[in-house]
Design a protein that fits this description.
It is a single chain. Helix content is 14%, strand content 32%. It contains four helices and 19 strands. Strands 1, 3, 6, 7, 10, 15, 16 and 19 form an eight-stranded mixed β-sheet that branches. A five-stranded antiparallel β-sheet has the order 2-4-5-12-11. The longest helix has 20 residues. The chain binds calcium ion (2 copies). One calcium ion binds next to loops. One calcium ion (CA) binds next to loops.
């Protein structure tokens, strides 16, 4: 080995020893900074409820969850920490149960869901309507339709949480707050019977409606679904473009290589079964990862959030 090469090799060894000695700060360390704590507190983002969105391999985007496809993602699953917003508690794991994963591949953020449900609304039931709304299944009109009515997932993102540091009363469909609906039996692009995404509604603002539509029609958000009928289970993969989707400052989107960044995040899983299971004409279940809303004083209800830390780091392998 020439002296020059040996010096280079030594430098490599020293660098790797240095990295191993210091470690690389885990992404969640960012949640400990004063700036994040103060912004999160003002914005009603709970730092008790957080996940890391690691950079991982690109999954096969087909609605199925492959054997090791999400090993490099952060897993989540239903437990007592989820907050049920309907009157009916989840009484059994057959009625509703789910687990899922979140990660990104540098281009898209991926969410995957594995949902167990005993009765698929509109597939194994009549497409019964809530007594208070004969137009619940109107699609494509801002002022009519209940996009969330059915077996569904709501995805909520508050990308500019740090910059804005204020609570969200109503979302606008961009970095100031996104709330957008996946439904198992209807979609903006496919209509009744086709799973996919719908703008939130009814009667949200024109700005929100247009932003939600743009997300769906421009493929900022896309979904794939697989129904595993025999075991009362369906799986969904959702992908969201980082560029154009994860707005962390006005007009600026989080991208691979940027610092670890916490954003506000929330999920709700909704279940409708037979009409007799929804006496008030609403969902049978609507269970929230970080809670739904809270009222402070006499103002409008404020949205509750958990934190999702976007990072370019890969999930560490478990120690052997
Ligand atoms: Ca059910
Ligand atoms: Ca159901």
């Amino acid at each position: 080995m020439t002296p020059r090469r040996s010096r280079a090799a030594l430098a490599g060894v020293l660098l790797s020893l240095f990295m191993a000695g210091c470690g690389v700060a885990p992404p969640e360390t960012v949640l400990e900074s004063d700036e994040v704590r103060q912004a999160a507190k003002r914005a009603l983002v709970s730092l008790e409820r957080w996940m890391v969105c690691w950079k991982g391999a690109t999954p096969e985007f087909d609605g199925r969850i492959g054997e090791r496809e999400y090993d490099d993602a952060t897993p989540f699953g239903w437990d007592a920490d989820w907050v049920e917003a309907m009157k009916q508690d989840i009484a059994s794991r057959q009625d509703l149960d789910f687990n899922g994963w979140v990660k990104h591949d540098g281009k898209h953020l991926y969410l995957a869901f594995n949902i167990t449900d005993d009765i698929f609304y509109g597939i194994e039931t009549e497409r019964w309507l809530p007594h208070q709304d004969a137009f619940a299944h109107v699609i494509g009109e801002r002022e009519r339709g209940r996009p969330w009515f059915g077996d569904m997932i709501e995805i909520l993102i508050f990308g500019r949480m740090l910059e804005i540091g204020e609570p969200v009363t109503d979302v606008t469909g961009d970095g100031r707050g996104i709330q957008i609906i996946y439904n198992l039996t209807k979609s903006l692009e496919g209509g009744i019977g086709v799973p996919g995404m719908l703008p939130h509604g009814p009667n949200r603002t024109v700005e929100n409606w247009e932003n939600n539509k743009r997300w769906i029609l421009d493929d900022i958000i896309e979904t794939r679904t697989e129904i595993h009928g025999l075991d009362n289970r369906y799986t969904v993969e959702v992908r969201i473009r980082l560029d154009g989707g994860m707005e962390v400052r006005e007009g600026e989107y989080w991208t691979d290589g940027m610092p670890d960044t916490p954003i506000g995040f929330n999920l709700a899983i909704g279940d409708v079964d037979g009409a007799e299971m929804s006496p008030d004409g609403l969902l049978h279940h609507e269970t929230w990862w970080a809670g739904k809303t809270v009222r402070q004083g006499s103002g409008p209800r404020l949205k509750l959030w958990g934190a999702l830390v976007l990072t370019s780091k890969a999930k560490p392998h478990p120690a052997p």
